[in-house]
Amino acid sequence: MSPALKSHFADYSTFHATPGNQACHYVAVPVIVLTVFALLAQVELFTVGAFTVTLAEVLIVLATAYYLTLDTGLALLMLAASILCAWAGRFIPPMVALGLFIGAWVLQFVGHYVYEHRSPAFFRNLTHLLVGPLWVLAKATRRA
């Protein structure tokens, strides 16, 4: 784990110290990731053979490039999870994805304001929008 990722995780963790907020995030963050990919998969860019490239794949490439600068192992795990979410997201109707996306964000804010009594980390640092999913994955795989 790079010093930069250790620093990001340390900062992010200070905003997610209570068990209630962590539980909300362990559910909401994966749902948000899945639904972002589901919604971005609706925006088709071009076709290569039988595969249509969407904004979901563009996000995967950009996020993976960033994650690789932080930790190769976690980046590859996140790449696999992202590919799975992008694939599954193609089967979720857009209005269902939107409803789940909104519900997951409500759950995030419940975690912060009911349990943590502190605003979300990304209010102070937008990078935490990318750090959050990696933090949840690191916790789930016991790498953080």
Summarize the structure.
This protein is 71% helix and 6% strand. It has 144 residues and is mostly helical.
Q: pLDDT under 50 segments (min length 5)?
A: none
| Extended strand count | 2
Total of domains: 1
Widest sheet, order of strands: 1-2
Note the beta-strand portion.
5-15%
What would the principal axes of the Cα set say about the shape?
globular
Q: Largest beta sheet, briefly?
A: 2 strands, antiparallel
Q: How helix-rich are the residues, as a percent range?
A: over 70%
Mean pLDDT comes to 92
Number of helices, where a helix is a run of at least 4 consecutive DSSP H or I residues: 6
How would you summarize the topology of this molecule?
Blueprint: H1 3-14, H2 19-40, E1 44-48, E2 51-54, H3 55-68, H4 72-89, H5 94-116, H6 128-140
Helix pairs in contact: 1-6, 2-3, 2-4, 2-5, 2-6, 3-4, 4-6
Description:
- The chain has one domain.
- The model has no long low-confidence stretch (mean pLDDT 92).
- By secondary structure, it is mainly alpha-helical.
- It has a two-stranded antiparallel ribbon with strand order 1-2.
- The protein is built from 6 helices and 2 strands, in the order H-H-E-E-H-H-H-H.
- The longest helix is centred in the last third of the chain and has 23 residues.
- The protein is globular and about 50 Å long.
- The N and C termini lie close together (9 Å).
Can you give keywords for this protein?
71% helix, mainly alpha, two-stranded antiparallel ribbon, 144 residues
